[in-house]
Design a protein that fits this description.
Elements (H helix, E strand, L loop, with lengths): L1 H21 L14 H8 L4 H12 L3 H13 L3 H13 L7 H13 L3 H13 L7 H13 L3 H13 L8 H12 L3
Length: 187
């Protein structure tokens, strides 16, 4: 919904600039710029957006082979949503043999690009030793990044860690309250 609103708004602005140019008028810093609807859409959305979304739709519909065919080439090119999707396939064993190490292989680049869900999945992997050697320090590093990125389960887990003094964190009721409160807000 927000994406459609954003695309519509961008299209309207670019269309107005284009109309000014075609009518002989000028717009600041855009004089002579001709904008087509295709340009507006390509400027507003990454080229892989429809494909990654189609992969997600296939995954949700249970067509895991189709999801993998869509996501894998995109993931190999670094598409964050496709990387996360491939990680989820291997973590859950959907359409592929369940393999935590391979899931981590796909999640890591998405996490490094700032994807909060992939950061959370890495924190779980390190926390339980799934696909990687168990490492509480790395688990907390990824958990904190995921929480800061808005991932609600990560925020609740970090709050609990501060509340009970877990994973090497000191008990800190104020930080626990902060993360519990943040986990309840819409972002």
């Amino acid at each position: 919904m927000m994406r459609n609103i954003r695309l519509t708004a961008i299209g309207m602005v670019l269309g107005a600039i284009s109309s000014l140019t075609l009518a002989g008028g000028t717009a600041p810093a855009t004089a002579g710029l001709t904008v087509s609807p295709a340009t507006a859409v390509s400027a507003a959305a990454p080229a892989s957006a429809p494909d990654a979304e189609a992969g997600a739709a296939a995954f949700e519909a249970g067509d895991y082979d189709k999801a993998r065919r869509i996501w894998q080439p995109l993931a190999e090119k670094g598409d964050v949503r496709a990387l996360r999707g491939m990680g989820k396939m291997y973590e859950k064993g959907r359409g592929v043999e369940r393999d935590f190490a391979t899931a981590i292989k796909w999640y890591r680049p998405a996490a490094e690009k700032g994807d909060a869900e992939s950061q959370y999945r890495l924190s779980v992997g390190y926390g339980y030793g799934l696909g990687v050697k168990k490492d509480e320090a790395k688990a907390m590093q990824w958990l904190r990044k995921a929480a800061e990125g808005g991932q609600k389960r990560a925020q609740k887990s970090l709050a609990k860690a501060y509340e009970d003094g877990l994973s090497g964190l000191p008990r800190d009721p104020e930080k626990a309250k902060y993360w519990y409160d943040r986990s309840k807000t819409r972002e």
